[in-house]
Amino acid sequence: MKLSLFFVAALAVFSVSAVPLVYDDEPEVPYERYIEFIDENGVKNTIDLEEEPDVEFLNSITRDNDINGYFLFTRSNPDNPQQLFKDDAESIKNSNFNSKDNTVVIAHGWLSNQESGLNPAIRDAFFNVGSYNVIVLDWRPLAMRNYITSAGGVPEVGRNLGRFLAFLSSVTGIGLDTVHLVGFSLGAHLVGNAGRELGGKVARITALDPAGPLFNLNSNKVRSDDAIYVEGIHTDGGLSISLGIGYSIGDVDFFPNGGNNQPGCFTTSICSHNRAWRVFAATVSYNHLEGRSCSNILQINLNTCRGDRLRMGNGELYKSGSGRYRANTRRRYPY
Length: 335
Known about the structure:
With about 325 residues, this protein is α/β, with parallel strands linked by helices. It has helices at about 1-10, 55-60, 90-95, 120-130, 140-145, 145-170, 185-195, 270-285, 295-300; strands at about 35-40, 45-50, 70-75, 75-85, 100-105, 130-140, 180-185, 205-210, 230-235, 250-255, 290-295, 310, 325.
């Protein structure tokens, strides 16, 4: 009942008027009731923001029922994962996990799983530049349900990820300051909640076009204190039909090409939305995209930012900075 009331309250703030592309603070971003979403197989799905959540399923996601799957890739097994289990130390000790390497965790978005395109793209990019423990989080039992239910369960699956990482740290001796969490869309809010569960002690969170519907006014969205350094990359934010958040959520926020309507994306919002993980993977491999600091919204939208320079994305564990940046990219890889 509490969950139902929460979603009713969250939805009550939405209307159908248009809004600017990028925001200073946390606005009341209006969304239309129905939003088109095309999955990786080209299947059209419709997000209905007034659909009822599966409260029974959400209630089943408790601290004693971790539905997440944790799959380890290293340079010794770059293609064939080893599954790790929370509260099973042997699954970790018998794996290729190397406590001397930094750890990257990748969290997919709605209607996805461990085999979705962003996982190998980001995984292989990290292996291109170094030796890492790459853990792909598979939260498909929740992600494959309707959007309302998936969004409602994100905080708990995120906390479960945090508890798994605490267990991993206790078994391997790694510090949380050697962990980089990367999340796309709903996965961005998921890793934010994981970082929050760990007291904001992980080194870095990269939030790739964090999901907008139901999260603009939601205290469970990713935020700057979820890690030592939080970076947002916004590629489809701001309009009532967009899939991402169009305003700052981290220590540093990049708005490639203004943060909406990416080059080469002509017809669907999902193209711009997915560009976030594609661009990030490219920056891990090449570290070639640079943003300029912006003083205000108008500069971001008009491409007149002339402030300090900062590299967008990349795989560096220890980054620092603050503010909003615009980076300009091309339409094709490596952008």
